[in-house]
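As a warm-up, study this chain.
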Amino acid sequence: MAYKSLLLSFALTCFIGYSFTVGLTSPNSLLKKIPEWGAFPLMIIIFLLYLLAGWWAIKGFGEHKISSIISIGFCILGLGFYAVGFAMEMGRGKASRGQYDYDFSRLDATEKAALTQIAANSNLTLQDATFSEHWHMMENAEGFRTCVQKGHVTALRFSGKKIPDLTLFSKFPQLGDLYLVDCGLTDMSDLQAPRIQRLDVSNNRITDLKTLSGCPNVGWLFVQNNQLQSDDGIELFTKLVSKDLSGNPIAK
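Now compare it with the structure written out below.
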C-alpha cells in the first residue's frame, strides 16, 4: 500500500508541477489542449486520487513508515498547489474591482498620444480598441486589443496590422505584454521596451533574434513562422522561461 501511495502521490505532484510551469507558460502544452469544460472534472479527479494516495499511505504506515511519510508529504505539497489551482480556476475570467480600466478616461496623456499614433499608422483610431484583461490578450480583435490598468497600458495586441514605427512602444512604461502578430515586421531594433515580459511576434519576417535585444527581460518569447536562419541571440534573454521558434528555416 505504501509503495503504491508513494508512486501515485509522486506522479500527481509531478503533474501539478508541470501544470504550474510548462502547462501555464507554453501555448503548445498538453494542458492548453484540454477544453474549458474539462478543467473542473480534471481537478476533481486529481483531488480524489490524492485522497486515495493518502488513504493508501495511512493503511501501509505500519509496514513501510518512511515510504508512507514521504507519500503523505507529496500529498500535502500537491494538495497545497491544488488549492491554489482551484482558487485560480474559480476566479478565472473574473477581474477584481478596479483592477482594469475599460476606457481611456484615466490614460496618461503621453501614452494616449503614442497609442493614437500607433493606431493611426495602422489605419485605426482609439475607438477601434477592445479593452481586455490579460488572460484574453491572446485572442484576436477586429481592431486592436489593449489592457489598461490604473491609467497605464500594460498589454497591447495588434494582429494583421502594419506597424511602421516601433519606437512609439517605448512610451508605455508599464507595458508588460506585447503581441505584434502578422504585422509585416522584419527588423525589431527600434523596439526598446525593457519591461516587456511576454512578446509574441509570430507570423512576421524577422531574420535575426538579436534585433529583439531592446526587450532583455522577456520571459515568454514567441517567434513562430518568421525567417530565422539560426537561434543566435537567444542567449540575450537571460530570464527566458519559454520560447517557440517553430516554423522558421533554422539550420539543423
